[in-house]
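yo

u said u wanted the structure for the complex thing, so here. seqs first:
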Amino acid sequence: MNAVYVAGAGSTRFGRHTDMTIEALAVDAAARAIVESGIDRSRIGAVYLGNFVSGPLNGKEVLAGIVAERLGLHGIPCTKVEGACASGGIAFRHACMAVASGMCDAVLVVGVETMMHASTPEITSALNCAMDNENDGPSGLTFPGVFGLAWRVHAQKYGTTREDIAAVIIKNKANGLKNPLAQMGADLTQAQIASSVMIADPLQLFDCCPPSDGAAAVVVSRRELLTDKARQQGIRVLASAQTSGSARISQHPDLCSFDATVLAAQQAYAQSGLQATDIDLVELHDCFSIAEIIDSEDLGLVPRGQGGHWAAEGRTGMQGDTVINPSGGLLAKGHPVGATGVGQIYEVIQQLRGEHANQVKGARTGMTHNLGGVGVACTVHILGADA
Amino acid sequence: MNAVYVAGAGSTRFGRHTDMTIEALAVDAAARAIVESGIDRSRIGAVYLGNFVSGPLNGKEVLAGIVAERLGLHGIPCTKVEGACASGGIAFRHACMAVASGMCDAVLVVGVETMMHASTPEITSALNCAMDNENDGPSGLTFPGVFGLAWRVHAQKYGTTREDIAAVIIKNKANGLKNPLAQMGADLTQAQIASSVMIADPLQLFDCCPPSDGAAAVVVSRRELLTDKARQQGIRVLASAQTSGSARISQHPDLCSFDATVLAAQQAYAQSGLQATDIDLVELHDCFSIAEIIDSEDLGLVPRGQGGHWAAEGRTGMQGDTVINPSGGLLAKGHPVGATGVGQIYEVIQQLRGEHANQVKGARTGMTHNLGGVGVACTVHILGADA
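structre next:
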């Protein structure tokens, strides 16, 4: 297997882009990535596009080919991949596989989604496409409901409080305030969070990530194709894991853990030879505040049951033991579904370059965690800077 | 690269399955493929699912993971891939890549679509997701319109007649009559075709493939995992090509040719070391009667401009120079979009096994051609039986 390097990266701001088509957003991010890579377009051997619901929300499919054409990439295989909210991470993994296996010298990966042109019922209905509607549908659960249940169980089993969970929000919103790509960073207090509108008891407004528009893109390549600058940065994919888990919440033995995350993390640590304590920063899938707590435990970053307490003690903050979501995460940076997984990679790249607006000091290794549905699909990637 | 073998295959009948969910159809085909392969489920390393519009038409995404769960496949990467009508072929190619690269010992590929529960406007609207709606949308063209234009040009340039084109239909409908999986085989006359209802001038009813429900599945693996029977059959993937072309009909210099097909065929011949004359049968993408004529020329099976004449002369029939669509093709077998590409592979497998109900005598090599949108995505595969 060839080593897979980051050649270039690009991203739009996450937020409201109702003045742009979904194609235009994807092209914006992708063109930045290609230009930064300095790689001639003729060397790009494939395009992977991560997207979740362009069909239901935009009436558009086959976006991989459409976007490639606008970028002047002709004839090469262009594939949309979908795994609900993990679509972006899955796209990145397939780009890595194509370079690692020697099939391509360089591959473009783009993640994109637009949601903000749609009504709230339309968005809710589209997001519910990520559930096992035949089995779990009759329960009437939506995603806030699922994570509300998880919160209840976590609180009962581990004593996690509203204040613990609010600490995640305060941290991520503050991080988002420093990230120019973030949709809704904020300086929030415990009181503001506790008094915000109820969404799905016990989840309140600030516990939920917003719907978003956005796109992110990365060019990965063999080392030989890198610019001098990129070669010096030497940002390499150390692990790439994709797993699946039950699509039915009713089949989860523990509402406070996602098997797919646990397995993907094990595989990623094994591939990279690293341990959780070796990771300088993590961009993980905090679609809800409680999700960050669960994810941090599933990834082995925090002892089981301690996610809330660690957050409250600042141990996952910018100066903490393990820096989680310095970008602001989904809660503050936003969650344009198909873009999120690629956006996480983009964030880690900026950190490893030492060029992030909310820089983790001395960051040498970063992890991303992208989770789809109720844990039906998961990717974990570890990136590192060559010594 | 490891050699990639066919370990097992399964398919539902194509047609009306409004009594089954899309998941159930996929599971039906996939379970047959797995059982036939004799491969323990623990050896299956990934699932690729080809599907086009389960989002808009079924309100369901993330089907790869949902279907895997029902099959008792746990933890492995499950990915939906989409490239409009080429989704199934793209899924098959990714399964092959995973085995060829050594990442997996065996991979399950499933193609599935359900359309017949939807109204005609819903289906038309869903199919139009395969167009570049920003650019070509304002023209008001739908797919029958596009292929109607192609017909006009082919007739003008090459003298192709209504009778030539009807010969394709008569052949494919007759083949379909012998295929128990086909949706609408028929014994048709020139007069019946010429008097059928007009769809998009000059395309009449029998010039258009029907909407369909259906699923097809294949398990591909390294040779070591094959049953004795499969090893004896020795059906191997000799070439796997995926290409892209313009998504805008307005950018096609020639309405009677798809660049993506021409390129994919070149690549497939080069990979396999075979020429068009070495291919015993071809399952190609006859979404409309005129499409078979164009495809047969683009694939180099028939001299440019002669597709209609060859069909009229019976040279693409069961006793012809090159047997095209012995399954009945999309016109007669049906076109459950995401299933079609995998269904074509299924058909070739049965032919190479010598077990097809409409057997091409002595078939040793078969080709499939799966085309998406107005040629935005294409796959060409060549399979052969070991000597």
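Residues 162-178 of chain B form the longest helix (17 residues). The two ends of chain B are 20 Å apart (CA to CA).
cya
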